[in-house]
Amino acid sequence: MAELEYWLWLTTRKGLGPAGALTVIDHFITPERAYYGEREDYDALPLPPPVRQSLLDKSMDEANRILGDCDRLGVRIMTFQDAGYPQRLRQIEVPPVVLYIRGRTFRFDEEPAIAVVGMRKCSQVSQVRAERFGMELAANGALVVSGIAEGIDCSAVRGALKGGGPVVSLLAGGVDVPFPWENRFLFEDVAAAGALISEYPPGTPHKGSHFNPRNRILSGLCLGVLAVECKPSGGTMLTVNHALDQGREVYAIPVGLDEECARGTNWLIKEGRAKLVEKAEDILEDFVELFPAKLAGLAPLSRSVAEARLSTPVEDKPAPEVREKAEPAPPTREIIPREQQKSRFTDDELAILAAAEKTALTADELVEKTQIPAKRVLSALTMLQVQGAVEERPGRRFYALVELLNS
Under CATH, what is the fold of the domain 1-73? Predict the structure, then answer.
């Protein structure tokens, strides 16, 4: 039996949880030794009787099912005893015993990782700010870490992708279960350009009881946490409390005094629990000496570049009213001669640019029109947006900002 199966057997024991699994590992040293334990061995563990009883169930059916799902989905499994397991996570009070990773592998201890968190039901102004901070952090060498739910999380993730950097999303369910469903395309963008990470196996639905445990990992992987908008209580404040307990830096963006939804961030600043920040540089300057190779060239994006990449103007002006009809194309577009096209774009990118040259199309429509697999279409769209060759319009429709000259 492979060692990994023993880890999955242990972490799927009913009622055990991460803290209980670590208690078992402390006693038996390895999950394999725990698997072959007897009743009298388990009676010595400081665990409730029903949990000790669950260790007597030696069935590997669930472990084998999870392994099969991971193989099918291309999901890697990292265990607490793996050499690549982040030291940052080992230091938190209850580290995750197993992590499921879809996408790239990151050496988090070598990354200036910054979490960006906030409310799901947030103001338009804060969505703009989250996107701008995500973009500026990524463009200047930071690894942006967030959830991927609606509101602030989504905006920060989109900003990081537009900033040209990778992004990591921590999930409260399986890495194969988009949540909410409307974010499935963004879900695939993150998997292609960064990583989706969860301590829950594939197929696990996102549950309310999973979010706070998820939050301890989100803050634990990072050097600092930026709260964009939050109330005095709720998920964002729970993440901030985890960060403070873990010795992480906390940052907050101030919002108007009369804004009920921002009372939490303003309170954090007032009480000295968070550093007031107005731009990404205010955060990254704290870590330049620790990561000179990644952050030494710290320089904010020019205003023109930032405005071109963001979906909403940098000045935090309210977004224009969404109209049913797509906006007309710009009067002029950059023309790319045939001899330059292959050097600037991949074959997938060229096919998408050609398809979206006359009208804005959704990702599904692009898949149908180009016959390119969905994962490759989403990856290409991300890179085209970073290059400024495609823009996203209302309704998640994409339009080419360049014209391919083929004559």
Answer: DNA polymerase; domain 1 (1.10.150)
